[in-house]
Amino acid sequence: MGKLKDGFNKVTEVELIYRNKMPQSEQRQICSSLDAYELLDSSWDKGKMELQEQFKIMLLDRKNSCLGVSLIATGGVSECMVDSKILFATALKARASGIILAHNHPSGAKKFSDADKSLTRKFAEAAKLLDINILDHLVLTADGYVSLSDQGEMPAIHLKL
Q1: In the chain, what is the greatest distance between 2 CA atoms, to the nearest angstrom?
Q2: Nearest to residue 103, comparing CAs of 75, 65, 127, 135?
Q3: What angle in degrees, to the nearest 10, is found between the helix axes of 84-93 and 114-129?
Q4: Residues β-bridged to residue 123
Q5: Mean pLDDT of the chain
Q6: Tens digits of per-residue pLDDT, 76-123?
Q7: φ/ψ (deg, to 5) at 30
Q8: Which pTM value belongs to this model?
Q9: Of 154, 67, 78, which is closest to residue 119 (Cα–Cα)?
Q10: Cβ distance 53 to 106 under 8 Å?
C-alpha cells in the first residue's frame, strides 16, 4: 500500500465525555407528569413561552432520577423542527434510560396536535432500538400543561411511579 498524500493521513478523533456535576443524592426523582412539569417549567425561559416553540428533553436514569434537561430545538411561532440525531445523541451521551419529551405551545393551547402525536410515536420507536424508553410527552403553556401519558396515549411505555 502506498503512502497517503500529504494532508490525507489525518483522521479526526471522536471522544465522548460525560460529566455529571450533581451528586445522585441531589437528583430529583420524577414520579408523575406533575413532577416533570414543575422541573421543566422552572428551566423554561418565560420570555419564550408565549413567543416561540421550543423542544426540550428531560433525561432520566433507571430510577427516574433526573439527569438533566436539554434544549433540543427552537422554532417559530407555530412549529419547531426536531432533529432526532441531536435528541438521541444527547440522551446517549448522558447515559439516559428514559426520556420525557416536552415542548411549549405559544398559542396557549393545551392540546396535542396530530403532528405532536406522530413525532412521539416516531421517537418511541427509534428509542426502542437504543434501549431507551420515551416515558411521556408534555405540552407546556404559560398557565399549565398537558401530558400524553396522563391521557393514556403514550405508544407503549407509561411513566412508572
Answers
A1: 67
A2: 75
A3: 50
A4: none
A5: 88
A6: 998 899 999 999 999 999 999 999 999 999 999 999 999 999 999 999
A7: -100, 115
A8: 0.85
A9: 154
A10: yes
* Number of neighbouring beta carbons within 10 Å of residue 17: 5
Unique residue bearing C-alpha cell 432520577:
65
CA distance 143 to 127: 30
80: number of Cβ within 10 Å: 17
What the block records as the C-alpha cell of 85 is: 440525531
How many other C-beta atoms lie within 10 A of the C-beta of residue 121?
Answer: 15
- Calculate the alpha carbon distances from 122 to 105, 119, 134 in Å: 20, 5, 10
DSSP state of 39: H
Set of cell numbers at residue 148 = 400524553
Q: Where are the beta strands (DSSP E) in 20-123?
A: 54-60, 66-74, 98-104
